[in-house]
Design brief:
globular, 448 residues, Rossmann fold, alpha/beta, binds nicotinamide-adenine-dinucleotide, single chain, eight-stranded mixed sheet
Length: 448
């Protein structure tokens, strides 16, 4: 099939490369010329395992090309996937300007009377499909165009997105056109995954419901971690005991400093706003968002309880800037937010992340932050070490040796990667999140 992708970011570039790998002929369009030039030179604008090799392979086989040319891209695709960003607007709802602008351009360049399916892969609120249809028509003006709209929400995870695209748990496609549903089913039917064919509104809502549910799971275990801190229970044991129940499952039950990233915060908030627009007060989601904010504050409070609120005499080594492991993405990263708070209180920061340093530099600049090109370096002369992203390699560093390089052996582990007892044995004052044997024995509302 001939496929056009509009918006060549994390979702669009990976989807385009994977579709090409499945044998389709793909054009990836973006308005960012620099990004397009890089991709065509084989330089990936994002870090994603296996992406560079895949893009080089499908490009050399002649099935993949990136471009900024709307006209040729829209003429090319029988299937046109909209994969542009949908960030939060100031009110917390999804900003759909990029989606509508793409839809109008699709209409503008759509050839007369040639059937196409316009598919939204971007995460968009319920009801957006009708507006996409309208905007395509606005773009087309008086032309006679022939198209259907469909929704095909994306569930890939940054860091494992190529694997996810080939091994998804399910494919969701929504449309009011049987023809469009059949074409999309054809695209995905070789995958070993159920295909949920549904109406447009349900498909759009599935994505928000899924992300909000996962965020709820994270906030739930974070709330449990607070109870652990106040009662002397250990959140890792509690999560293990809960997660072995197959009805619950162990994933997304890691207590820490809260969820971040370009999806969960905006999607939870957008679903909350959509609910309000339909006169429903989705109180559970309000609680999920509040708990997430509070969790980060609790973590930073541990630091302030130990040192006071003036940190200007202190140097902190920090491991992790990405919003999660496996990616260079720092959008809405809790790690970045914690670093900002520590720096705001005067601390000097020495930061390492295996993939996200360039993006961290863009977010944090040079003011009181030094960037290290290896993990070991951030321990040197540090008054405390912070682990803020759950890169597995941070758990496997030579701690017995590295802590000797520190000015003070203090570790704040925001992702519970380390073992409190092992750390104690190394003479480290260790602070985790909801851990039984860490150094934090006083709390605002109770004593362990
Ligand atoms: P991104 O910011 O990485 O990429 C969006 C791209 O769209 C950018 O390269 C931008 O230049 C381009 N763009 C903007 N307007 C355009 C236009 N009019 N025409 C052509 N290109 C245009 O975003 P992303 O992370 O890939 O997310 C895209 C969508 O997918 C969002 O709705 C997001 O919620 C959803 N999503 C993201 C993920 C994820 O893990 N990143 C997972 C599932 C769903």
């Amino acid at each position: 099939m001939k496929i056009t992708i509009i918006g060549t970011g994390y979702v669009g570039l990976v989807s385009g490369a994977v579709f090409a790998d499945w044998g389709h002929n793909v054009m990836c369009l973006d308005i960012d010329k620099d990004k397009v030039d890089k991709i065509n030179k084989g330089i990936m604008p994002i870090y994603e395992e296996g992406l560079e090799e895949l893009v080089k392979k499908v490009s050399s086989e002649g099935r993949f090309k990136a471009t900024t040319d709307y006209k040729s891209s829209i003429e090319h695709g029988e299937l046109i996937f909209i994969c542009v960003g949908t960030p939060s607007n100031q009110a917390g709802a999804a900003n759909l300007n990029y989606v509508f602008s793409a839809a109008e351009s699709i209409g503008k360049y759509m050839p007369n009377d040639e059937y196409k399916v316009v598919i939204t892969k971007s995460t968009v609120p319920v009801g957006t499909h009708n507006k996409v249809r309208e905007h395509v028509r606005i773009g087309a003006g008086n032309k006679k165009i022939n198209f259907d709209v469909a929704s095909n929400p994306e569930f890939l995870r940054e860091g494992t997105s190529i694997y996810d695209a080939n091994n998804t748990d399910r494919v969701v496609i929504g449309s009011d056109s049987e023809k469009a549903l059949d074409i999309l089913e054809d695209l995905y039917k070789h995958l070993d995954a159920p295909i949920v064919k549904t109406d447009l509104a349900s498909a759009e809502l599935i994505k928000y419901a899924a992300n909000s549910f996962l965020a709820t799971k994270i906030s739930f275990i974070n709330e449990i971690s607070q109870i652990c801190e106040r009662t002397g229970a250990d959140v890792k044991s509690v999560a293990l005991g809960m997660g072995l129940d197959k009805r619950i499952g162990s994933r997304f039950l890691n207590a820490g400093i809260g969820y971040g990233g370009s999806c969960f915060p905006k999607d939870v908030e957008a679903l909350y706003r959509t609910s309000s627009e339909y006169f429903y007060d989705f109180r559970l989601l309000r609680g999920v968002m509040d708990a997430n904010e509070r969790q980060k504050d609790y973590f930073v409070d541990k630091v302030f309880r130990k040192y006071g609120t003036n940190l200007s005499e202190l140097t902190f080594g920090v491991l992790g800037a990405a919003f999660k492991n496996g990616t260079d993405d720092t959008r809405k990263s809790v790690a970045i937010s914690v670093i900002r708070t520590l720096r705001g209180a005067g601390a000097r920061i020495k930061l390492f992340d295996p993939a996200a340093l360039e993006n961290a530099k863009k977010e944090l600049g040079q003011d009181n932050v030094k960037y290290s090109d290896n993990a070991e370096d951030v321990f040197k002369k540090a008054d405390a070490l912070f682990i803020l992203t759950e890169w597995p390699e941070f758990a496997n560093l030579e701690y017995p040796e590295l802590v000797k390089d520190m000015n003070k052996k203090v570790i704040f582990d925001g992702r519970n990667l380390l073992d409190p007892i092992e750390m104690k044995d190394l003479g480290v004052e260790y602070y985790g999140v909801g851990r039984k044997d860490d150094a934090d024995d006083t709390h605002e509302n109770g004593v362990k």
